[in-house]
Amino acid sequence: MRNTTKTVTTVLAAGALALGAAACGAPGSSDDKDGALVVAASPVPHAEILNYVKDHLADKAGLKLEVKEFTDYNTPNLSTQDGSVGANYFQNQPFLDDFNKKKGTDIVPVVTVHLEPLGLYSHKVKKADELKKGATVAVPSDTVNEARALKLLDANGVIKLKGGVGNEATPKDIAANPKGLKFKELEAAQLPRSLDDVDAAVVNGNYAIEAHLKPAKDAIILESPKNNPYANFLAVKKGDEDDPRVKKLAKLLTSPQVKKFIKDQYQGSVLPSF
């Protein structure tokens, strides 16, 4: 993608034919069942888990696996939808439901693998009740994760949300805000870098780990795994669930070896969900 080669041809029909062939059977796409399965993933922990599978389990299972890393929450689904990749691994069900609704995509979950507990972090206080009146708290700007962040604060008595608010809750849905907290909406990936500029920030688990934060140790409030709907899963475009490569990967991702890897590698900051 970084190196672009321009090809000039006088035979436009041949060029169009070649382009069509590439789109229909790009290596790793859902149309190329004999090639490597290319999976779009967030770098941590998703790509790390996939690379463990690739390095230790895939060959024995007869699976060719390629891991493609993305640092945003939009491209993996769009690439899965258009067939640029064969699957993705980075999201939870409420996020996917919202994405499919807004983008008109038809991505579906295959198998649930792990939970990354959402956490409140601060460089200025050690407990949530130490936040001063009028303190600024940064939250993710995307719909589902913002609601999830507010629910975390509600569950721990920092704020109180209006009854019945769902996965589209915003600061406008706060019914009680005893400390008069101000909320700053930022792209999820930017939140760890905001900690020196705000009083606290609610950070997704993957971005916390990338920033060398340890959710189980460093979060001043941490999401409970009990009955948690935000576990992350392997996902594909609808109709690709029966791709033999996808089935092999789903089985490997929920194997005892992967469960042990997650427990040993992340020490409670990422939790197996199988």
TrEMBL record:
<keyword id="KW-0472">Membrane</keyword>
<feature type="signal peptide">
    <location>
        <begin position="1"/>
        <end position="23"/>
    </location>
</feature>
<keyword id="KW-0449">Lipoprotein</keyword>
<dbReference type="InterPro" id="IPR004872">
    <property type="entry name" value="Lipoprotein_NlpA"/>
</dbReference>
<protein>
    <recommendedName>
        <fullName>Lipoprotein</fullName>
    </recommendedName>
</protein>
<keyword id="KW-0732">Signal</keyword>
<dbReference type="GO" id="GO:0016020">
    <property type="term" value="C:membrane"/>
</dbReference>
<keyword id="KW-0564">Palmitate</keyword>
<comment type="similarity">
    <text>Belongs to the nlpA lipoprotein family.</text>
</comment>
<dbReference type="Pfam" id="PF03180">
    <property type="entry name" value="Lipoprotein_9"/>
</dbReference>
<feature type="lipid moiety-binding region" description="S-diacylglycerol cysteine">
    <location>
        <position position="24"/>
    </location>
</feature>
